[in-house]
Amino acid sequence: MATIAAKAPRDFAQGPVWKNILAQALPLTAAQLVLLLYNVVDRIYLGHMGGDGMPLTGVGLTFPVVTIVMGFAALFGMGGVPLFSIARGEGNDDRAGRILGNACCLLLISAAVLTVAGEAFCRPVLYAFGASDATIVYAEPYLRVYLCGAVCPLLATGLNGYINAQGFPRIGMISVVIGAVCNIILDPLLIFALKLGVVGAALATVISQAVSAAWVLRFLTGKRVPVRLTKQSLRLEKGIVADISKLGTANFIMQGTTCLVQIACNKTLQQYGGDLYVGVMTVLNSVREIFMLAVTGIVNGALPVISYNYGAKLYDRVKQGIRFNTVGGAVYTLLVWALVVFFPRVWVSIFTDDPAMIDTGSAMLRIYFFGFVFMSLQFAGQSTFQALGDAKHAIFFSLLRKAIIVVPLTLLLPLTSLGVKGVFWAEPISNLVGGTACFVTMYFTRYRRLGKE
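-> structure tokens emitted (453 positions)
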């Protein structure tokens, strides 16, 4: 570890901006690829367990709760990263350290609340989210085990961004790789060898995240990192908590509205299509996570670079970062769109061998990914607002695409001649309307005004 960490952190104010972004984005994308294994390896194994896809469908019903947990990681963890980077760009490492410590303390408090509340209301919540008597037997045990170890994913995910923001993306990548390797090893052992089924899948995830969290904490408290996590910095400060919460609210709303969309989809699909279509949506979300890897890596790589240069008042470099973020995301999402259109069955078959789910899922996949390129506009606009500390716009456009557009369309379109297909059409429509609105607003309110403020 000492050898890896010995490399000096990157100065984001020096060198070509696109190189700085790629230097961050490539390891982060690799880390995201490995992180994806946390989410999809369980589903791949469970999808091939038999039972007409019920184990996979049951675990899919836990996604809204898992999304809420990750929402708190985004709120109190990643919510402070732009503030942390801006403080470093201003040369204020003392404030940066206090932001890091406050974020960690808030994550620990969140973990305790989520575990207690989740365990108390687990079963009724799952029924409210669309579970049936056939799927609750898989969803409930998985979720109870996951919630018992909620502190692990909160710390592993919420604090890893502070490693990347200090110019150590390879360390951040290793944080994820270590846990993912554990997950790959433990999944078949616990699910099949020890015959624990969905409980084994949940245990594998929690243990793996615990290993990642330990690595992250060790590095952030070590001597190699420029801004360390210390006991003194864990004391909550009203002003810093307010700043983190204000900016992090945009991240939380993004996760919260994702949760809301998942609930609306599961309930509506259960009503109009039954367990088969709930299972299909689980598969489609899994495929979507695979394809979101690179664009998420570019966005996360650009965020600290843009924030640092904004704090240093290097506005031309900020604009270069925004342009690279936008073009890179657009090219990639166009490629993904083509892959889905021509090879839908390949992607669905990764997660299930049930013929009915493959046939139905392939048709719905083409609908769900229609116009996927407009998602890159949403990411480019949203990440720019976050990087520049513009919480107001970041929050609004988080709400617009999902809460204001997707959820109503999910509930209303099935009432038309589209039937159950309307649930899948809600996503591309929201990408077009919400993504375009977000990017155009960012361009005129932030991009064009940089350096003229």
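The radius of gyration is 21 Å.
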